[in-house]
């Protein structure tokens, strides 16, 4: 049993008293102090932007400050460990992305157990992943990227927001599908990865559209392909990977809130309600829409089901493609 799992078991005992208190006083007594949202990536990236937008609305809804704290590193495992070892009282949350479902398969021994160590709260939204290059790059299309990679196996560098991130796995899946050998360069978030592709230090960046679009619209980046199942409304002229010769290819980034294991049901329900109201706001919907993304309202069970299905799907990919953290 890993450290997080031992901590989670201990948390269950403490949460019993907390749960009794919450039932006695009702969910309306929560929160009574500021709430912290952990982000496993650097400030300025997409997860950070979504956390701040949703957190701002939640602060108004709940009547308490909501503070975003960035804890990048170790493929988001630093932030995840901080969450799992925090009291299960609702005052520490994590805005997670797909890496939460990926890392138990990517890192060995598994750094945590999804079922034992966390309480799902709510999905927030989804945005597509894109392949981009610097505007003046010699690579102008996805076909040219494939040709360059086949001409120089391992010679094309691809930056991603980090090990286990959806862009990382999307890149691995693409090179596995296309029969390529690309050199992965992981970063601690999308912002530094984009900075280095703009500086000419890496050839390509796989990142979610929320981070890439402002630079693309400013004429500094060229988007080669969108990895969603359909073309993006904000990038109508950019083909999908699927229609570029790889049918069925699809990769998107989802965002969702989780809390430590043992969170009392009334607090879970209160937080879920606040997130649902937040993603109905124009601010959050507009933020997602700027990248061709969509909000994902729905019950907690929907998020729990997604976590389990993604853990199985990505686990299979990691085993079959022999993906290891760099």
Rg value? 20 Å
| Beta-strand proportion | 15-25%
Query: Could you state the oligomeric state of the chains shown?
Result: single chain
What are the secondary-structure elements, in order, as H or E?
HEHEHEHHEHEHEHEHEEHHEH
The helix/strand class is: alpha/beta
Which whole number gives the mean pLDDT? 89
Approximate shape? globular
- Put simply, the count of helices is 12
Major sheet: 10 strands, mixed
Could you tell me how far the N terminus lies from the C terminus, measured between alpha carbons in angstroms?
A: 25 Å
> How many strands?
10
Helix content: 40-55%
Q: What are the low-pLDDT stretches, counting only 5+ consecutive residues below 50?
A: 8-26
Which descriptors apply to this entry?
326 residues; alpha/beta; ten-stranded mixed β-sheet; 12 helices; globular
Overview of the molecule:
- The chain has 326 residues and is of the alpha/beta class.
- The chain is 44% helix and 19% strand.
- It has twelve helices and ten strands.
- It has helices at 3-25, 46-62, 77-84, 99-106, 114-117, 142-151, 166-178, 190-198, 209-217, 265-278, 282-289, 300-321; strands at residues 35-39, 66-70, 92-96, 118-134, 157-160, 183-186, 204-208, 221-226, 252-260, 294-295.
- Strands 1, 2, 3, 4, 5, 6, 7, 8, 9 and 10 form a ten-stranded mixed β-sheet that branches.
- Helix 7 links the parallel strand 5 and strand 6 (183-186).
- The longest helix has 23 residues, at 3-25.
- The radius of gyration is 20 Å and the shape is globular.
- The two termini are 25 Å apart.
- 52% of the residues are buried.
- The model is unreliable at 8-26 (pLDDT under 50).
